[in-house]
Amino acid sequence: MNILGIDTATRVCSVAVTRDGAVLGEVNIDAGTTHSQKLLLAMEQALRQAGLGKEEIDLVGVSMGPGSFTGLRIGLATAEAFAYARKQPLHGVDTLMALACNCREEGRLLSPIIDAQKGNYYQALYRWQAGELCCLAPTEIVNVEKLLERIQGRECLLLGECGKLKDLPGNIEVAEDEIRMPLARSICYLSQRDYNREQDQRIFGLEPYYIRRSEAEELWERLHP
Fold it and tell me: For 31-77, what is each residue's pLDDT tens digit?
């Protein structure tokens, strides 16, 4: 199965093409706030590396959040348009779970996090057990104190947007740059693992996992009590 994976949940624009788990093409760009300018080019480059035409993709996987509101909308809209134009199935993937897939070390506690702004983070806890990625604690919005409390002094690998975290306790290791930020190859892996032909029939109508309201919504509520 040829899978196109897209992840624009953070400042990184990541696109990958895989076939039965093997990475055929991959492009990772620190796009900042310019996903709309970089994503289509990254898709073309990844497909060219893979030596595949757009019509040869069997499944499109896309990161659904949590993450940047704008980035998620751009990634999902692009994935929907790509899938619709070629009548290809579309599968949404949890961003934090995909981050945890970047490290396949058996038995290690993994804590993927994404900046939720205002001193908060989206955090979940995972561990690989017998070749399966197990969720130990679901996604929550936490401050730094709560983030560390959830790890509870256990040896842990931190992945994602952890650059603002300083003076971490000795039990926490920050992942190496090669696997720390989102990789679309993990979107492809989870899409192939979880794709259900009967359930994944919708192309339009998927909702990103925003978890919290956007600043625009909060501002509207303050101005219109």
Answer: 777 888 899 999 999 999 999 999 999 999 999 999 999 999 999 99
User: What residue ranges do the domains of the chain occupy?
Assistant: 2-95+181-218, 97-180
pTM above 0.85, yes or no: yes
- What is the average per-residue pLDDT within 92-105? 97
Instruction: Tell me, letter by letter, the H, E, C secondary structure of the chain.
Output: CEEEEEECCCCEEEEEEEECCEEEEEEEEECCCCHHHHHHHHHHHHHHHHCCCHHHCCEEEEECCCCCHHHHHHHHHHHHHHHHHHCCCEEEECHHHHHHHCCCCECCEEEEEEEEECCEEEEEEEEEECCEEEEEEEEEEEEHHHHHHHHCCCCEEEEECCCCCCCCCCCEEECCHHHHCCCHHHHHHHHHHHCCCCCCCCCCCCCCCCCCCCHHHHHHHHHCC
Pick the CATH number of 2-95+181-218 from 3.30.420.40, 3.40.50.2300, 3.80.30.20, 2.60.260.20: 3.30.420.40
What pLDDT was estimated at residue 212?
A: 62
97-180 — its CATH code?
3.30.420.200
List, for residues 163-172, the tens digit of each pLDDT value: 999 999 999 9
Domains 2-95+181-218 and 97-180 share a fold: yes
